[in-house]
Amino acid sequence: LTAALALALDGHSVTVFEKAEGFDDIGAGIQLSPNAMNVLTQLGVAEAIAARAFAPQSIRLIDGLRGGVLSELPLAATMQARHGAPYLVAHRADLHAVLLAACGATAGVTMRQGRVFESAGGEAFDVVVAADGINSALRREIDPTAKPVALGQTAWRTAIDARDAARLVDTAGVSVFMGPGAHAVAYRMGARDAVNIVAVCDAAVSAPKDAFKGWSRGFAALFDLAAGWTPWRLREVRAAQWNAGRMVMIGDAAHAMAPHAAQGGAMAIEDASLLAAALARPANRDGIAASLKEFSALRANRVERVRRLGEQNRRIYQMGGIMAFGRAIVTPLMPPARLINRLDWLYGGP
Ligand SMILES: Cc1cc2nc3c(=O)[nH]c(=O)nc-3n(C[C@H](O)[C@H](O)[C@H](O)COP(=O)(O)OP(=O)(O)OC[C@H]3O[C@@H](n4cnc5c(N)ncnc54)[C@H](O)[C@@H]3O)c2cc1C
Predict the structure, then answer these.
(1) How far is the CA of 110 from the centre of ligand 1 (A)?
(2) Which residue, 52, 123, 263, 274, has most beta carbons within 10 Å?
(3) Which residues contact 206 (CB under 8 A, 6 or more apart)?
(4) pTM assigned to the model
């Protein structure tokens, strides 16, 4: 939807094929970092999103076993000033609703909901953008060797009532609970009275509780409030090439990644903006393929760097034994502003 909006605002005529009949109250929470919000600001939808979202004060890094806060990285106070856009958290359905409304209000976007797009062959478009997610069917027409690879962990998701959660977790911020081989992230979903919890642990575990045995009493109490967990097996996609002629992949279709830097959606949103910039230049169909190739090369470097950040986060969050002991000593000694400013290359983007 972001790509459709960006392209249509540039004067292209866009048809969106979406296999789902409608966008229900899908999914759970999503963190929208300033690099994503910068794009959404340019597209004129940031205010509408902000009205449904919420700007967390900070990210707390918490020792999941002992319960202490090891560091509190400032968000609300610094992101807008540093990067010209806020760090928000929202319910996915609210983000979708705003983008869908903006597409509906933009001349040049035609929505075809309930339509599965099978193949680019026979379709009379100048460009086909495969934004069909991790299980992309169109990927085999671009890079048949690229397939989702299991990462050995599962993200379990649920939501709990914000009033119940408030005595156990900081509902004004994002909390990351760190422990051996597992971690969990909790934040309020925008203006809604619900706290999103994502618990990441070994894929062999059949109930998330089993992976968090022996964690702090506060964390256990939070876990006791949670029910109705939905598992999402973590997989990644590393396509070597994102375009074939005038077909191009963006988002999870090209580069699904683990959620440990909370950037998969942000990268898809960035892709949309830079794809529109790439397609603003070519004067003819031959030029389009060359522009798409340049776009892919440009994006692949940044996406790879973000993927590595996610992997580094996972290693730090899930340290055990002596490493966790070291983390508990070192983390509080590092100035929080310095920790968050290290991510200027990311949040200042795309
Ligand atoms: C636990 C977890 C937490 C996450 N948290 C964050 C976060 O905080 N911040 C963040 O930025 N990212 C986060 N992500 C990543 C983010 O969810 C994804 O990167 C993002 O949804 C990818 O968007 P996409 O549009 O590429 O694909 P999708 O969101 O998968 O959308 C693909 C769309 O294509 C449609 N479709 C598929 N096949 C066809 C077809 N053949 N024809 C027509 N339509 C089709 C589908 O119905 C769907 O609507 C998280 C992921 C997980 C698993």
Answers:
(1) 21
(2) 263
(3) none
(4) 0.97
Q: What element of type H or E holds 176?
A: strand 174-179
Enter the tokens of residue 90.
Answer: 């929202």
Residues sharing a CB contact under 8 Å with residue 106, sequence separation 6 or more, in sequence order: 5, 8, 9
Q: 116: buried, middle or exposed (CB in 10 Å: 19+, 13-18, 0-12)?
A: exposed
18 pocket-lining for ligand 1 (C-beta < 6 Å): yes
* Best probe residue, ligand 1, of 238, 252, 269, 270 (max atoms within 8 Å of C-beta): 252
Q: Which of 17, 24, 30 to mutate to test the pocket of ligand 1 (most atoms within 8 A of CB)?
A: 30
In contact, 159 and 222? CB cutoff 8 Å: no
Q: Is the CB of 56 under 6 A from ligand 1?
A: no
Q: Is the dihedral of CA 132, 28, 95, 62 positive or negative?
A: negative
Mean pLDDT across the stretch 233-259?
97
- If DSSP codes are grouped into helix, strand and coil, which group holds residue 324? helix
Q: How many of the other CB atoms lie within 10 Å of CB of 237? A: 22
